[in-house]
Amino acid sequence: MTVAQLLNKGKTYLLKHKIPQSALDAELLLMEAVGFSRVQLYTKSQEEISQELRIKYEQLLEQRVQGIPVQYLKGAQEFMGLLFRVTPAVLIPRPDTEILVETVIAYDEEENFQMLGEIGTGSGCISISLCHYLPNVQIVAGDISKEALQVAKQNAGRLQVSQRMEWIESNLFQSFSPSYRGRLDAIVSNPPYIPTTEIPELMREVREYEPYHALDGGMDGLDFYRRIIQEGHPFLKPEGLFFFEVGKGQAPEVAYLLRKAGYGQIEIKKDLAGIERVVIGRGYI
Predict the structure, then answer these.
(1) Structure confidence at residue 284 (pLDDT)
(2) Relative to the CA of 37, which of 92, 139, 177, 253 has its CA 20 to 30 Å away?
(3) What CATH class does 80-282 carry?
């Protein structure tokens, strides 16, 4: 069977099982199975594929039909122009979160950040991207999951920013050293923000395969914002900043939580779809 025949077979199989983006997924999984680039799928379309590689491709297709996300099957996802390893221990990085990173980078032009903190780092995509694009920054990043931190450390090593990162296994700030109190220029977080009752309505790929603790934000989706603002305050410098990614419709409520806690200069950034996606608040002296 040739590359072209195998690709058509994969597209048909995924379409039959009503997999979203079936054509794209079929391509990505074939690239993974045979080690080709997307260009090679077409420039080598008449090459014969070995039985061993055909079986590997068919196994990947079957796993995709079961609902396993392509990113977990490939073990990788691009974010901010960088390639990150991902496993079922971490939330898959999404384009929406790039708005959060880009906002921090834009603020750095005036703020000249030296020390940042991140809560709920997962794959490390936020902190590692910030370290990559802001060469003077050091970051302390925490996550409650030991398995997630292992993935993040591997990503930091491969992307050569380990020397400017500290990883802490912690339930929010509980295990952060007191030596960080009053030292952080900003705290950045994309916390769990999906209301508990809405999780059953998520796509199967998300609700069944991505880590539940990285999704569930409590009954109103705001539990972690409340805790991060309260527990993170002592770690910020007097005019330190919070940068939060938020879910659709949550920006006004998170802005209110920041104002209630004494933060001002509230700014809200929209994503490419026009959804309010990032909320920023600054502390007072």
Answers:
(1) 74
(2) 92
(3) alpha beta
CA proximity to 2, closest of 45, 39, 59: 45
With 70 as the cut, is the pLDDT of residue 285 above it?
Answer: no
pLDDT tens digit sequence for 123-170: 999 999 999 999 999 999 999 999 999 999 999 999 999 999 999 999
Q: What confidence tens digit (pLDDT) does each residue in 37-64 have?
A: 999 999 999 999 999 999 999 999 999 9
How far is 63 from 224, CA to CA, in rounded Å?
33
Domains of the chain, by residue range, sit at 3-66, 80-282
Residue 229 C-beta-side C-alpha neighbours within 13 Å? 24
Torsion of CA 93, 96, 99, 101, to 10 degrees: -10
The contacts of residue 108 (CB under 8 Å, 6+ apart) are: 134, 137
- How is residue 197 written in tokens? 């009752």
- DSSP per position, 53-91: HHHHHHHHHHHHHTT--HHHHHTEEEETTEEEE--TTSP
Q: Is 229 helix (H, G, I), strand (E, B) or coil?
A: helix
What is the C-alpha separation between 66 and 19, in angstroms, rounded? 10
Give me the helices (H) in the chain, please.
3-16, 22-34, 38-43, 51-65, 70-74, 95-111, 125-133, 146-158, 204-209, 223-232, 251-260
Instruction: Report which secondary-structure segment, H or E, holds 193.
Output: none
Q: What is the pTM of this model?
A: 0.94
| Percentage above 70 pLDDT, the chain | 100
Residue type, 207: R
Contact between 172 and 233 (Cβ < 8 Å):
no
By the 8 A CB rule, do 97 and 269 touch?
A: no
Query: What 8-state DSSP symbol labels residue 2?
Result: B
